[in-house]
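Sorry to interrupt, but I need a hand with the structure work. Could you write out one complete protein record for me, on any chain you like? Just paste the record in under my message, thanks.

. . .
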Amino acid sequence: MPNWSARSILTAAVVVLVWVTTGCATDAGRGLSEARDQTVVAPATTSPQAGVATVTLAAPAVSSAGSWTFLPATPLLSVERLTGTIEPDGTFDMAFPSVDGDGVARGVDARLRQPVEHARALFAADLFEDESADVEPSHLFGGGIVSLLDTRVVSVEYDLTVEWGGAASGDQWVDAVVVDLADGSLLGPLDVFYDDSPWLEALARVATADLGARFGESVVWPDGLAVEESNFENLALSAEGVVLLFDRYQVGPGVLGAPRVTVPWSEIGEFVDPNGPVGHLVAG
């Protein structure tokens, strides 16, 4: 069953347009679609369990240091749910965070909702393509957990699972987003680190040592930890350091699940741009 992984902006409704990245690992059974530019028409019902957070649209008072902008206070955090059914045999129940406060950009909540919408679209695509009959219902569930929320950025880790009806095993998918609270932009590694520094090598070195110590060097697959940006695209932030999320089957057999590694700021902080969006995490 393919281990699904993608990060793209998605509007999922009755007609869903899906962008899917390639290169996912496989397992026995059926998995999520990897077709590009695919239009899926599937009857679906959605039942949000919480209202959309209201944000302040007027320009608030903010403070700045270096080249970044801080909000006047840490935003309030709440949790919303995306639940519903996809006919004929699918259900989904996913949680995602929402933030509200003076200065929070209008696009932040859309960024935080995006990964679960994307997962729902992939799930719908496979259910729509499956022509088998008389199978047990399939379920998509999980959600996002905030790893960092301050007056500058919000970082969220997503862990979602599909249990396919009638299958012995399921799929697991991870993602991470870091969002600038002041302007709603999605931040990537090159926004965080000096682009000419060996930040990627440092992440690979620490992750390899960490996983080898936990699971055994003979168990870990080195290809999934090679010094390539694609291997470290699921990058979150915490007060302790950079959080790396690895897809199932990326760095080892499926029994490892989707491993998580925290690279302490002491190992990577020297490569962080102090004038960048997260320079305040390593200042002083």
Notes: The domain at 188-284 is CATH 3.90.640.20 (Actin; Chain A, domain 4).
